Amino acid sequence: MTPRVRRIVFLVAGGVFAVTLAWTFRALPSFGHFNGAYGTALSRVSVPERHITDAVTAVNFDYRGFDTLGEEFIFFAAVVGVALILRAQHGERAEHSADYATGRAVPPTSDAVRVLGLGLTPPTVLFGLYIVAHGHLTPGGGFQGGVVLATGVLLIYLAGEFDDLHGLYTETALERSEAIGAGGFIAIGLLGIAIGSALLDNVLPLGTTGSVFSAGIVPLINASVGLEIAAGLVLLLTMFLHQTIVLRETSP
Amino acid sequence: MTALQSVMLVFVAAGGSGVVITRDPLRQAMVASFFGILLAILFFTLQAPDVALSEVVVGAVALPLMILVSLAKIRGGQK
User: Fold this and answer.
1) How many CB atoms lie within 10 A of CB B72?
2) Is the pLDDT of residue A112 over 90?
3) Which of A115, A199, A233, B67 could form an S-S bond across to B29 if both were Cys, CB 3.0 to 4.6 Å?
């Protein structure tokens, strides 16, 4: 295809796309005028029915908890896939060298970066735990909190303490934590079936609205998801860094 | 639509175009990270803090990081 033909094809396709888009936009409700019946109903009933003050969490982990279960396992499958691709292969050997250029010293991490990274780690981890624990009360939840927790570990790496990370956890412990987190979601969901109700039905006592220990199974699911996401992301990070920093291909 | 929302929509449009225009993958990872922050602020101005929180940790931190370590691995193998 010559550039000229390609440009003509693009102009025709782009024109059709632009017209269709403009046409569709005209049929949209005007900005800020949401008229979905379910959304309105759910934000009205989530506090009286489920004692959940964050309506988004009420949808994600209670009313449509089954969808979230699927998403949870998409993440799980992604981590397993990366673990499979990045496993140590034949022809690769572990070797400690932080820089490819020979005859040049590795620049040391500056004290300022080290202090900043290590100083930010405890507040980040605490913030992550807070977001996981308050998922049913304020914006956030297991997914967001789990990623923040993993960022705390990333900060240790950024502070130039990659070797210290190895002492902090093992890959086996991470894999088990991830599996426990993913399995925990299902186990909590099966509670409903066990007592004769439906999968992921909110069967636990709902408690006082606004309290950390309220909203039945939702905080438990958040904790479970938080564990899975944090462990999974740290596992991803560890495997990538291991590939980048430690494993070197042997010369053929 | 408030003035803040309009400004953020324009910024997000500019940021997204910036990611596409940047052709060097290393620079692109950095621009994508900045775009993630812009998008998170837009979500926040649209009163969606849950989504904004996800976007800021995934779009601004996790995604660029994965691109960076992948680039480091690929370039290391070439030398």
Assistant:
1) 16
2) no
3) B67
